[in-house]
Amino acid sequence: MTSTPPGAVSLTGRIERWPITGTFTISRGAKTEAVVVVAEVSQGGLTGRGECVPYPRYGETPEATLQAIQAMQAPLAGGIDRITLQASMPAGAARNALDCALSDFEAKRAGRRIWNLLGRPAPEPRTTAYTISLGTPEAMAEATAKAAHRALLKIKLGGDGDTARIAAVRKAAPASELIVDANEAWTEDNLAANLAACADAGVTLIEQPLPAGKDEALLRIKRPVAVCADESVHDRASLEGLRGRYDAVNIKLDKTGGLTEALAMADAARALGFEIMIGCMVATSLAMAPAMLIAQAARFVDLDGPLLLARDRDDGLRYDGSLVYPPDAALWG
Fold it and tell me: What is the pTM assigned to this prediction?
């Protein structure tokens, strides 16, 4: 890594691995650990931190993400800040970690909470979804029964057999609000049947039923349940093309490239009439903390990443059941 003069802003990064409790399974595969990349910006005894999750779906790897972060050492030492960073790096995981680290550093340097600096309301506790991994209807019903005390459940689906999965999950959790995530696994042929099954089960929201770029059928079909874009939406530039196809957008900081763009995107999405969902990858509380600012105006909050880990960071977010509290300054912001 390039050395920096004494007193200059320094940048470090590292790859971390956090074990998952059991296995986390979606339509694209299963994993037993969360691989995250952490960026740290330091100067004068103060350090700001940010965490991201490189997403193979978009060609990201932990190693390349770390290299992209480390390559910003010279620009940081030269005075680049959170605002000018937006034009210096593409949206994605690497910029997310650095953007959030700079936000944390900015708050520490000012001795104020980041939401005060940004002119945003102080975050309050929000109810988060709890994710049920993809499996057989029987396995998913068993997992759902153990989580049926939670107010909001997010059900991972996978295409064939989803109507049976939906019915089994609803039977196992008759009182919970359900949202489902197909992760692009449905097709035009089974779209109508799956939408009907979700409506029959009282599902509130369906995430990304069709593959991104192949979702024209959503323009033509009656949607009995609200449909939310995930893989089809990244930042503000992608919002306009979603009108007529989607009712909501899932904002994830790893897609937007950080909190700065995520806040602007949330404002723009609401102006266009979209409902907001704030989502996450499986990661520690350091990745969830900035998203709590988006969660304040979100209809759906899905920030359960730390609940799926075998352990979380020190000073992690406090979860009281499914109620997640804003971060302490010791964690972030």
Answer: 0.92
